[in-house]
Design brief:
Elements lengths: L6 E7 L11 H5 L2 E9 L2 E2 L2 H14 L7 H12 L4 E9 L13 E10 L5 H7 L1 E5 L19 H10 L6 E5 L5 E3 L4 E6 L2 E5 L9 H9 L2 E4 L3 H5 L3 E6 L3 E8 L2 E2 L2 H15 L1
Parallel strand pairs: 1-5, 6-7, 6-13, 10-11
Antiparallel strand pairs: 2-3, 2-4, 4-5, 7-8, 9-10, 9-12, 12-13, 13-14
Length: 272
């Protein structure tokens, strides 16, 4: 492996007319990672968790260490006037290298985008989400498990398959038929006052909201089947944009949304 001897970062504000090179490794190989955060009153929610995610991705994918000082200043300039919105930070290894080989000098490209907050999230939080099982299963790759890399083709296929399903979102399984996540969110459940969520050691993404929840509650990571979820007292999907949203239906099994919210509120109040 070639030694990385330079760490030059180019920050691009996606709202301006900047361009990414056609030879960028993120475009050609998916050689990069990203995080998506909620903006509230000019601040980035759970920023320390998003920052930790970016740092972990850089380390595990053998990127140079990120210099957060100019990045954080750039982000603050972009979000300070925004009451509600979405911040996306995308990092690629830049250009260079022969084929898949790493470049001898690494010039990272960082793209910062500020987007509108999804209009349907508030309604989903109130009404709950209906879930069906996706026909697309996730392949195992422990080296990438938990990371939010640019390789999202599985999720593209999952969303395409959802067009023929009568639901708000889907449960995505691995090839051992273990529940992993939703199409773009984590899953957790409550049973007898205890919180559990799927193991993500072979595939899937460990989201920022789930990590923040682990700061407040004892959450058990374990192998979970669809049957385990349908027998739970409450099931939620969660990500950093919509937070925890109750599930109202998994296939034919229905849940009481108000009861689910009450169970979670009680647990959070107990640990506060």
């Amino acid at each position: 492996m070639q030694k990385i001897i330079n760490n030059t970062q180019t920050i691009i504000n996606a709202s301006q007319l900047n361009a990414v090179s056609i030879t960028d490794r993120g475009l050609n190989y998916g050689d990069g990672f990203f995080t998506t955060a909620k903006i509230v009153n000019g601040q980035v929610e759970y920023w320390h968790h998003h920052k930790a995610r970016l740092a972990e991705c850089a380390e595990r994918l053998a990127f140079p260490e990120l210099d957060f000082s100019p990045l954080e200043q750039h982000i603050q300039n972009q979000v300070k006037q925004k009451q509600t919105g979405v911040l996306k930070i995308l990092v690629t290894r830049g250009e260079g290298g022969r084929g898949y080989n790493l470049p001898s000098e690494c010039h990272l490209t960082i793209i910062v985008s500020v987007l509108e907050y999804p209009a349907n999230y508030n309604a989903l939080a109130e009404q709950g989400v209906s879930l069906e099982i996706s026909p697309i299963k996730l392949a195992a790759q422990p080296l990438l498990a938990g990371l939010k890399t640019l390789n999202r083709l599985e999720q593209v296929l999952i969303k395409k398959a959802m067009q023929t399903q009568n639901c708000d979102d889907v449960l995505v399984l691995d090839y051992n038929n273990q529940v992993i996540e939703a199409s773009a969110a984590n899953i957790f459940a409550i049973k007898h006052g205890k919180v559990f969520t799927p193991k993500l050691n072979e595939c899937g993404i460990k989201g920022v909201y789930l990590q923040a929840l682990c700061d407040k509650l004892t959450v058990e990571f374990k192998h979970i089947t669809v049957n385990d979820l349908t027998k739970a007292d409450a099931v939620f999907v969660c990500n950093s944009l919509m937070h925890a949203v109750p599930v109202k239906r998994i296939e034919q099994q229905c849940f009481n949304v108000a009861h689910s919210n009450a169970l979670l509120t009680k647990l959070l109040a107990k640990e506060a």
